[in-house]
Amino acid sequence: MTDTAVTETAVPSLSIEAKFEAARLAARTLATVTTDRKNAALDAIAAAVVAAADRILSANEVDLANGHENGLSTGLTDRLRLDDGRLAALSAAVGEVAALTDPVGQVVRGSSLPNGVGLTQVRVPFGVIGAIYEARPNVTVDISALALKSGNAVLLRGGSAAENTNRVLVEVIQEALASVGLPIEAVQTVDEFVRDGAKRLMRARGYVDVLIPRGSADLINTVVAESTVPVIETGAGVVHVFLDESADEEMAVEIVHNAKVQRPSVCNALETLLVHAASADRLLPPVLARLRQAGVTIHADEATRARFADVVDATEADWATEYMSLDIAVRVVDDLDAAIAHIARYSTHHTESIITSDLVSAERFLAQVDSAVVMVNASTRFTDGGEFGFGAEVGISTQKLHARGPMGLGELTSTKWIVRGAGQVRG
Amino acid sequence: MTDTAVTETAVPSLSIEAKFEAARLAARTLATVTTDRKNAALDAIAAAVVAAADRILSANEVDLANGHENGLSTGLTDRLRLDDGRLAALSAAVGEVAALTDPVGQVVRGSSLPNGVGLTQVRVPFGVIGAIYEARPNVTVDISALALKSGNAVLLRGGSAAENTNRVLVEVIQEALASVGLPIEAVQTVDEFVRDGAKRLMRARGYVDVLIPRGSADLINTVVAESTVPVIETGAGVVHVFLDESADEEMAVEIVHNAKVQRPSVCNALETLLVHAASADRLLPPVLARLRQAGVTIHADEATRARFADVVDATEADWATEYMSLDIAVRVVDDLDAAIAHIARYSTHHTESIITSDLVSAERFLAQVDSAVVMVNASTRFTDGGEFGFGAEVGISTQKLHARGPMGLGELTSTKWIVRGAGQVRG
Q: Could you give the ipTM of this predicted complex?
């Protein structure tokens, strides 16, 4: 694969309408290709991402230089940066998607009507998936692989900070698609239309079947507010652990430590610890000591402050904050009901866990807390597509429509009813 | 139940925010009440709708008189009108919802992780369902019953034409809820806020979990365009039947007649008939003769007009029209591919059926037509929750997210992951 090949296979300069229409046509082809063909495409992409490393990294350097000039934050710069190691990891991730079970054609349910008409509900691709994200070129490859495996075409809007990297990545993916005889328009970027690209994606009813925003709360809120296309919201996690009166001390210490410290920058990390008043004296000392050893800053309510020095005052804002850092908010609550009420008020309904030895408390917490994932005696870090055995993760949905919690390939499909008759009419 | 009781139990004049908050609290209660309690409420509603007939019909007369004054169309007036027979039918429908299986708590899937953590995905209510509809008081009772059975609270915006009827129906439902000790705020109307009620429902993120518009294409398009709350779209049906080259003549005649004539005003009725060119001479004469006997007006393309006199010229607009009347568009197409292409262009993706004796044609049609329901050798009139065995029908979804095709009680639920550990943390 040479630079000349790029120029030949890359999509020429098209209007956005032409790209939308091309995506729809490509989706129609993808909907009925075999799993073998889709896996061949994924294997070709996995190979191409490594084979074209020089081209990808050159483009990435341009984006990094532009970012430096425009004062891009250290965090975003880190997300933007690719290197040989990251490309190898991306390539491996695509290979893993190829190894997953194809959701298309799976039978969800079926029955025979009394008149002999046969009814089957099967999984089918959505058609065209739109993705709007920011400065994360790995998403370009990830979401393309997941969409292709589930038989969908994608229209990508990856943001100006990664524009050059994404353009080359899409070229590389399109070359791989062409090499196995699949339509290159199955994966397209609309980055060249800048802000208008995102706006048009959000209004592309009839072309885009579902839109997935990935990124900051601001980005997600904008998409939800402005989109007329159905959206799957992958949201923030103000995640809670509640230490019940009967919580085992060692379990409390280990789970709180793991949930907060193992990877604080992700959405399933613990943000607010609630402690039953009757167990505060027993549990807070060992739990907070372990957190402090790990360098965690404790933002505490009055009852906690009365027991410990060297803690920061928690304000009202702390209860609603997703720190994504080595910070934790701590509050002593009167009882289980108060814990459930606190969670109902401040949670983003991602994941909450109760640590308890009491069966009644456990069942009440599981039934009454209205979050995507509710746990008893387990670390909130388990809310993850990989951990749940989905193989790959599209994101974690915090909405209630269509998908809730970790989304796998199945969540990138819709369904279709297939009705087989022998001439039956309705009486 | 007396008029005095009404004044006591009816919701006092509240702000719309207070109603939203009350709905959310009621939803929290409903989410965990037993099926027995919900069924008791439904039985009480079924009895109350008949017992309070005088009050309901008085209010309905006021709406009918206002409608007459405002020049309400005959069709809308008919939808608005209640009488003892219709109330009895409404009451019976509520009783049927009580008899359905409760979807809440149903286990969708589950597994054990390698570390022993147990994972279960269960159905839970959405929380608060918003409904926006027009001049159909039966929807007030129907959707309330379906929402309650699936553990949801509802906020209803039924439109000014039925305002008095709906207010009394909601009062009657609330009295029934109170009589079994359930929160009356589980069913509320926001009709008194007039247009602002609909607007606020569409923007009630955090209060309303899903919004269901029922009514005209205009109404549905407005809700889809303006809502920031997730919407389930129940759409129009430009429904197709394709007579393949090998279609059996008697089957073609009977299915086309049934699909078009049995109940032309509903969304699963046939609108466009496509005929394979090689079978046009064989099939069109008996099929069209039978339709004409039934008084159907035929809007035909050139190829059909060349074969028959006394047909209306079909224009481009006819292919995209949902007549909902004894009219049909007829087009001769070159082959199966042309039929699939026509459907891809003009269908609203509701229901399409192929009449064929050829296995390859049948399978290609089922695989390549991208509609909620695809059929072979069956009448499109089978696309119906009742026919599918769902017992009740919330509507027929023409979107791909969350629900597609006839929606039953299960489609009024979300899911929740329940994770049971014994102290496990992530490695």
A: 0.90
